[in-house]
Amino acid sequence: MSDAVRIDKWLWAARFFKTRSLAQTQIERGRIKVNEESVKASRNLKLGDLVELDTPDFEKTVMVKGLSENRGSAPVAQLLYEETQDSIQKRELAAQRRKLFTEPASQIKGRPTKRDRRDLGRAGSTE
Q1: 104-113 long-range CB contacts below 8 Å, 24 or more apart?
Q2: Rounded Cα–Cα distance for residues 69 and 46 (Å)
Q3: What is the pLDDT of residue 117?
Q4: pTM, whole model, 2 decimals?
Q5: Exposed (0-12), middle (13-18) or buried (19+): which is 13, by Cβ within 10 Å?
Q6: Number of other CB atoms surrounding residue 118 within 10 Å
Q7: How does pLDDT run across 86-103, given as a tens digit for each residue?
Q8: 125 phi and psi, to 5 degrees?
């Protein structure tokens, strides 16, 4: 373990992203912040830095507890960071909202079939 690691390597090693290029893309889009500042992929992380991840899939704020350039197993990766209490509460609230309100578009599976179209036609007719 070294004193500083590039943020894209750390995000990959901590298993937030499947590849380093995905991590770099999210950093370039401004979705990753370190200590409340937008950063570049080459930015070095240090122990104690606060990393905010605001991606379409998840939103987390974590404190850097360990540094690694190598991707290991999931239990080892979880030792590299600790999620803040505020972040955990926000995530739990978002999960409850998703449970109570399902997105109407999630039920749509593409174009209607011929049978679906006929059923829609029958339901719409007043005869």
Answers
A1: none
A2: 13
A3: 85
A4: 0.75
A5: buried
A6: 11
A7: 999 998 998 888 888 877
A8: -80, 150
102: left (phi over 0), alpha (psi -120 to 50) or beta: beta
For tokens 């990959």, the residue is 12
- Of 23, 79, 76, give the one whose Cα is nearest residue 53: 23
Encode pLDDT of 22-76 as tens digits: 999 999 999 999 999 999 999 999 999 999 999 887 889 999 999 999 999 999 9
For a pLDDT cut of 70, what percent of the chain falls above it?
94
What pairing do the DSSP bridges indicate for beta strands 59-64 and 81-83? antiparallel
Distances (CA, A) of 25 to 9, 18, 40, 45, 92: 13, 12, 10, 17, 27
Please state, in angstroms and rounded to a whole number, the distance separating the CA atoms of residues 116 and 36. 50
Sequence letter at residue 38: S
The token pair that represents 76 in the structure block: 């080892």
Q: Do 76 and 87 meet the contact criterion of CB atoms below 8 Å apart? A: no
